[in-house]
Amino acid sequence: MARAFLVVMDSVGCGGAPDADRFFNGDVPDTGANTLAHIAQDCAAGRAENGRSGLLKLPNLDRLGLGAAVHLASGAETPGLGAVPQGLWGAATEVSRGKDTPSGHWELAGLPVPWEWGYFPKATPAFPDDLVQLVMDLAGTEGILGNRHSSGTLIIEEEGAAHLKTGWPICYTSVDSVFQIAAHEEVFGLDRLLALSEALAPILHERRIGRVIARPFLGKDGAFTRTANRRDYAIAPPAPTLCDWVQKAGRKVYAIGKIGDIFSMRGIDEVRKGSDLALMGHLSDLVEDAEDGSLTFANFVEFDSIYGHRRDVSGYAAHLEWFDQAISPVLQRLQPEDVMVFTADHGNDPSWTGTDHTRERVPVVASGLGKRPIGHIGFVDVAASIAAHLGVEAIGPGRNFL
User: What is the β-pairing status of strands 253-256 and 4-9?
Assistant: First the structure.
């Protein structure tokens, strides 16, 4: 029986979003942002030589049609990605009014976001007094740190020493609809951080804040490191998604990475987490062991969390090259009726201004569905097509491109 593997390379956009002018990094619209094309162009120009060198090398994904998908999406050139496609390939456009993780993933799973998200102002302080007091009451502290828009790794560097001294949680946000809490696993306590985040989540969800994220870290001043114990407390999808469709049909749904958190465990049977290196091991294991008829839904987050937000072109390029090499033996072990689809949830162009996501189309390339272009599609069409491949009923606006 057919199986499906839906692999989201978090933030690996390919430009060309028709509404990019309505999304911003600071005061600069996202018009022209192109994660994959700009990385490839910077590599070709010798501007991505830290830890790797030369043209961007993604032979496995490019063979499926990655370079062709970028050109379709935006018309941009991608030096090093010029293979004649041997897989299914196209580009997807999002309609949800957000360039965030839940919006992208829900829509890929067949459910465009039916409301406007709530956001915190780009000001310092960013949070209203009643919310700050609530955090203090729940945490049992006399204050909070941060209270502004920031990159997660940067704010830990800036506020970590004060956190160790005061014990106050570090609270911050971004252009996404999110409230994030960073705290030291040993000094503040991991269980305490998770309990605080879980208690805040339903209150913030009522304000249409999409996620409360617990961001634990370890280390000492000057050497802090975020751990793999991140937990997202997201608003539950308001209607069934691909995960529910598959589960309702009596099939198993495996979640790799933060997928379980993004969908609030709706329609999820089993979760496997860790660093991207560990997640690749989980994906490899499930290619061997996943049940017939099952869906494996994976998110590889480090493109976004480590390299995109920090605007690290070399690091992003190197991670793409690692992923491409690591996926090769996984692809080779797919069963004859399996399909593995690679896509993304938004962009995060590391050559762009600011630190936030960028509004972009995303590539859709696949192994196991023949050699053919599918042109421009919607995010929701990915869900409809995977459902068709698995032989389960799809509910919603998606079109089957098979």
Answer: unpaired
φ/ψ of residue 339, rounded to 5: -130, 140
Q: CB within 8 A of 232, min separation 6: which ones?
A: 101, 211, 212, 213, 214, 258, 261, 262
Q: How confident is the model at residue 26 (pLDDT cuts 50, 70, 90)?
A: confident
In this predicted structure, the answer to whether residue 175 has a pLDDT above a threshold of 80 is no
Helix segments in 207-275, DSSP class H:
242-248, 259-262
| 110 three-class SS | coil
Give the tens place of pLDDT for each residue, 314-343: 999 999 999 999 999 999 999 999 999 999
- Which tokens is 319 given? 């991670």
Question: Is 341 in contact with 294 (CB distance < 8 Å)?
Answer: no
Secondary structure letter of residue 117 according to DSSP: P
pTM of the entire structure? Answer: 0.91
Q: Give the CA diameter of the chain.
A: 61
CA 162-214-224 angle, 5° bins: 45
Which helix (H) or strand (E) segment holds residue 372: the answer is strand 372-378
- Are 383 and 366 within 8 A, CB to CB? no
Quote the CA–CA distance of 72 and 190 in Å, as a whole number: 45
Q: Confirm if 360 and 346 have CB atoms less than 8 A apart.
A: yes
Q: How far apart are CA 273 and CA 391, in angstroms?
A: 28
Instruction: Read off the amino acid at residue 64.
Output: L
Residue 338 has, within 13 A of its CA and on its CB side, a CA count of 22
Q: What are the distances in angstroms from CA 379 to CA 63, 69, 236, 294, 305?
A: 22, 14, 19, 21, 22
Report the relative pairing of strands 223-226 and 178-184 from DSSP bridges: unpaired
pLDDT tens readout for residues 38-96: 999 999 999 999 999 999 999 999 999 999 999 999 999 999 999 999 999 999 999 99
Nearest-10 crossing angle of helices 313-332, 276-289? 10
